[in-house]
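Cont'd.
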Amino acid sequence: MLGRILEFSQMLRQNGVRVSVSENMDAVRALELLGIADRTLFKSALRASLVKRSIDVEPFNRLFDLYFLGQGQSSRASEQELMARLGLSPEQFEKMLEQIQEFLRRMDGEVSPLTRALLAGELAQVERMMFEAAEGELGEMTQWARGAGFIDQMAARFMLASIREEIEKFKMALARAGAEPRLSEKISEYAEQRFRELMRLAQRLLQRELQKKEAAVPGQRRSDDLSQKSFAYYTEDDIRRMSEVVTRLARRFKNLLSLRRRKARRGRLAVSATFRKNLQYGGVPFRIQLERRRKEKPQVVVLCDISDSVLNASRFMLQFVYSIQDLYTKVRSFVFVSDIGEVTRLFEEHELGQAVEMALRGDVIDVYSHSNFGRAFELFHRNHISAVTGKTTFVIIGDGRNNYNRANEWVIREIRQKAKQLIWLNPESRLTWGYGDSEMPRYAPYCDLVEECRNIEQLYKVIDRIAA
Amino acid sequence: MFQSVDEVIERLAGENYICNREVGTVVYLAAAMRKPILVEGPAGVGKTELGKVLAAALKLDLIRLQCYEGLDEAKALYEWEYAKQLLYTQILKDKIGEIVKGAQSLQAAVDLISQQDDVFFSDRFLLARPLLRAILAPQPTVLLIDEVDKSDTEFEAFLLEVLSDFQVSVPELGTLKARHVPLVVLTSNNSREVSDALKRRCLHLYLDFPDPKRELEIVRLKVPEADANLAAEVVQLLHRLRRLDLKKRPSISEALDWVKALTLLNIKNLDDRLVAETMSTLMKYEADIRKAQEELAEYLRVRKAKEPSGAGTSDKDLLH
């Protein structure tokens, strides 16, 4: 059993689930306590000790089914099917099995253990034997086995031919022994069915082996690990699942800021206040009074590019902006392509999914024009520059692809002068900045922080840097 | 503590906590292997409750540590009561004067005082916080560390040390070792991923919303006065609601509140006009409530289509 557990956890590891040695030891100890008789207990014990992240539960369940066979169930189901097919009641079926076993005993030495187990209906036994045979020989199984030679391969592997022969022999022996025709007919049909089952079993086993091999290919990483996936490759479904992550990110953003405030407040000793407070203790500095800082409410202005080229990224970023706006009172959000429009109200009045869709659909600005950062910035300067004050953190989200229009970087420079800090998040790879119509080199010098922000992990880091 | 998984389930049920076999298994293993349990899952599925109930079922003391951002060792482990120390020295001024009376020099006086160190740094002035209390407890305890994901990573690292050895060193007193390893339950709401190192030391339990059958059991158990028919319908509706894209999915505790509210208003049937109005006990966001009301209407429509004869009776109920 130990070997099986180790192999299983190896398989988990190959599928991106982190399993440590100590966790393996826990699993083994847990099984010592619980035994392995009860399947659900067995599974719960393994799950509790090996799998610690909720996203790993799904792969665990899949691999568990793959690896540990559902032996009991399959044989019980097939038995019922057989009874129905032969038109026998459970008692009659039982009786027939006894007779078959009787014959088998008489044929001692002529049939292999596998055939014997198969005819006696001990499917679990059969499965185990085949599994062992497969362990030894299937190790070398390769890709081509799935092609045309699949059935032949399988037949050869499990020596189906010789089993077939043995069954024929069994039927002949039955006839020789002079069993009554009706019974022998039933029994031979029964044997046929069992053989077919064996074929199915072999096929399943092979497929499972191949799947296991496939599951073990390290290149196939789990796709639901979203944190490293680039926004550009997000599917609709991914984005929907994002909302939870985004709110979490936004909350972290806020917590980091407020934590810093709290820590800063602790810092300085207010001498006069301390003296005054400690007069009641005879001047012994008993209660320390620290200077209290004025609470600074951060103001944030966000400009988000929603042109086609960054559509997925902006969909995500708008969710992020929405969440930030939820947490702070003083946030103003704008979207732009060539025009620029404010979405603060829109975000306040509608719920997340709807608001983002409305912003992207063109309810605020024309989204089908070509992106023109220069024009958008100029318009912002003309209409909204008053939103920027000395307390403002100004965030621009966009790829800086300006379609060779005028860059108008003077707006950025002016904003930088007025604002507390200016941050540019670019959903494009840093390597491509400055090529083609990308104007990043022109804008970047005026920003306090320019970060590539292509996936959640990077956004996470950016947030830490902004708040640090 | 427990002899078998079934016993766990039974004894938790004795404390009005219904759990499935998986929960039972993990609890049994944790008790037998003396490992902490890390419970994760959506809000309101009974994570904290598990810790409390466990203490009650085992008849042990419960020590609870609520985590939050900025929680540090002083709040979690121990603190010296400086104020008390200072107060004592003030009151005992004369006594201290006596001790240092014979001293010829400052050095000698300090030496004399330092001989009395033990008096000032003793248990007397040590303010034990939850973790230290769990370690020093004369009887085994259940230690509930709630919302561990809310704490900072530094604190988590510190927790790691405590959870693996169950001993802490107080520089002035030396190392304090736990007399009994407490049964530890950590809960996490997943507001941040708890570190792998901590997870490795725990048995992991993912508590999800229960299936309808079990949830019905819970409702019947916790609100026994509720109408049986109503409870069944509420549970069915809840499962539909949880599948919606909501800001916050209705939890078990909110569902219980709702059933209580409906029972108080003497409502027997979900097509009552009042039902939609009481939904604010179940949902906490305006948008969610709206969606839930739509879903309720849809649910009632489907149900009515299934049993057209039942339509007349509900109107009669309204009159009473």
